[in-house]
What we know:
By secondary structure, the chain is mostly helical. It contains 20 helices and no strands. Helix content is 62%, strand content 0%.
Amino acid sequence: MTLGEKLSLSFVLCAVFLISSCGYVRALADQAQSQTQSPDANRLIALARAYAQGAHPAAAQTIGKQVLVSSASADGTQQDAEYKNEIMMDLVRKDYDALEKAAQEDRSPSARLSGGTWRVWSFYDGVDIPPGGDDASDDDWNARIDALKAWATARPQSSAAQLALAGIYDDFGRKARGGGYADSVSDDGWKLYNERLALAQSALENAAKLKEKSPYWYSLMYEIALAQGWDKSQAKQLLDAAISFEPSYYHVYRQQANYLLPKWYGQPGDAQAFADQVSNQIGGEQGDFVYFEIASTVVCGCDPDDAAQLQSFSWPRIKSGYAALEHLYGYSSLKANRFAFMALTANDKQSAQATFQVIGDNWNADVWHTQADFLKAKFWAEGPQGQ
């Protein structure tokens, strides 16, 4: 099997938008037509800076001063899907006390799931997306929105409820738009997309007025920035505010790398240069961990240029980053699947084989898309060297 054949196993273009934790990789879009420049980006950047003033004292230091959370405080006992299901059930039961408690605890840098994922990230995935995800009906989406509105009504001072509403409006808007090129989107699709994006922004601004703050606020503002077509200097100012709030919240580094991809607002090599810069600033195992996380955003199985993108990264450092991930935060099924895909792309059969043995049959649809692609890749990895 040639390298090109191996790569074709999992190069499935995202013909439909994927709402998933692999995240922030969308269908190739013509930015100039599909995005509208924000008339108030600078106002939102000022809001982002003001929001950073609500950070806890430890986060007031710069990233270069090595303030990232240590492995000793990480929660490496729970997988992402398991936690999302717990949170979803709290919402179904209208257990607002449990939701508020979890949201508050999950804002801490020490609140991690296996593999280092911030629990606050998975918390909102658990409440923002109805069962079925992309395949859910509009009735399902509206039912979930009603459930979140009920939470917000019951707890009017809950910033968590407002963030949940912002997240679901953003997701629901992108569902209306679809994942194709701009000229494939209907007039109704654009109308719904813009209406729902405005609702997401409104909920974010409401959350900013409330006492409790969360690093996830910046993840949602990144979604607004990407949709509105903020320029590079504006996106960098948003990143700086997010780092000022909480430098160990690595999810915004992944989002900035996605923003810098050529299919959005960057040039070839921009995302890789950013990975080098930020990972070197952090340094040590944490820097390598962040390098892996950024690489797995860029080389994700949703882009036919994955092989070319990977060549601009350091494969040895990606491997070091994956080893650091497991050492710091424990095993994650999702991230093992991501690493296996990158090993396939890098034609590193030895690394792929070892990782597939650990994965077993626990393949991840966000990475491989179909079980057939996963099994073909696994068959290649387990075959003799040179094939």
